Amino acid sequence: MARGTVCLTFDFDALSLWIVRGMRSPGPLSRGEFGVHAIPRLLHLLERRGLPATFFVPGHTAETFPDACRLIVGAGHEIGMHGYAHEVVSSLSPDEERAVFRRAHEVLTQLVGAPPVGNRTPSWDFTPQTVEILLELGLRYDSSLMATDYTPFYARSGDIVTGDGPARFGRETELVQLPPSWSLDDYPAFEYFRSDQLLMPGLRLADDVYTNWLEDLRYMLRDYDDGVCVITFHPQVIGRGHRLLGLERFLDAAGELGVEFDRLDRVAEQFRAGRAYGVYRPGAGVS
């Protein structure tokens, strides 16, 4: 059995990331379009190393750039849901949220020829009804919630949390959660973004970020049996030359640590079948 699993995930937001922010002039939209330009580079990088990946694709991206999405499918990678136009679901009514997910589901089903089994909510945003909506659509897993780092878990539905008394947790559902992390996401580390309300400086040295990620893997391999590490990329961010060169070095170094790479859908199904991913055993990986 592998000592640990790394899941490479790509949020192919393209134009939708800027549309949802109301930034629809040619300048910011061109930043999103660069993600399409980067897709062949990423697919080549993955193919050279024989690495599988999961791409979360908004319905807007699938309809606007279907050829790029077909390249992803043709290369054997998974495509999962990511809203229709990168909507912030907590800003929607329950009916609006359900309509967005249904629309995204229909678009991806038509594109791939089979319904998606996985979802990642845009900006990892959730509402009290998100889990139930995903289950209604037949989704098997989600990769949005961060209650653990190396250990898959089942999402709850019906939590009640207020500031007046202890939280009351709802029932455990059949929706697998494969946890991401902002610290394992390329966007806040690399992307420069400025608005009237926010400044994200980004533009960090690539190797500094990848060094942090390797340390996460080393910790997982030392103290967890069969841990799962989910890393998040965005083609419009990671697709720049110096970041790709650093990514190549990171992937090669991760492989030398003895991890395997897999798609999220496969990890979710193995977890559902009883595989004990991410059991905390301090020092278990020390030889």
Q: Can you describe this structure in just a few lines?
A:
The chain is an alpha/beta fold and 287 residues long. The chain contains 11 helices and 13 strands. The protein has helices spanning 16-19, 26-49, 59-64, 66-74, 94-112, 130-136, 186-190, 206-223, 235-238, 241-256, 264-272; strands spanning 4-11, 54-57, 78-81, 118-119, 141-142, 153-157, 171-177, 193-194, 199-200, 224-225, 227-233, 260-261, 279-280.
Intertermini distance: 16 Å
Class per helix and strand makeup: alpha/beta
Instruction: Write the CATH homologous superfamily.
Output: Glycoside hydrolase/deacetylase
Any idea what the radius of gyration is? 18 Å
CATH fold name, please? Answer: TIM Barrel
Q: What would the principal axes of the Cα set say about the shape?
A: globular
Helix content: 40-55%
CATH architecture tag: Alpha-Beta Barrel
- Helices, by number, come to 11
For the sheet with most strands, the description reads: 5 strands, parallel
Task: Note down, in words, how this protein is organized.
The structure is a single chain. The protein is of the alpha/beta class. It has a single domain, classed as Alpha-Beta Barrel (TIM Barrel). 42% of the residues lie in helices and 17% in strands. It contains eleven helices and 13 strands. It has helices spanning 16-19, 26-49, 59-64, 66-74, 94-112, 130-136, 186-190, 206-223, 235-238, 241-256, 264-272; strands at 4-11, 54-57, 78-81, 118-119, 141-142, 153-157, 171-177, 193-194, 199-200, 224-225, 227-233, 260-261, 279-280. Strands 1, 2, 3, 11 and 12 form a five-stranded parallel beta sheet that branches. A four-stranded mixed beta sheet has the order 4-5-7-6. The protein has a two-stranded antiparallel ribbon with strand order 8-9. Helix 8 (206-223) packs parallel to helix 10. The longest helix is centred in the N-terminal third of the chain and has 24 residues, at 26-49. It is globular, with a radius of gyration of 18 Å. The mean pLDDT is 95.
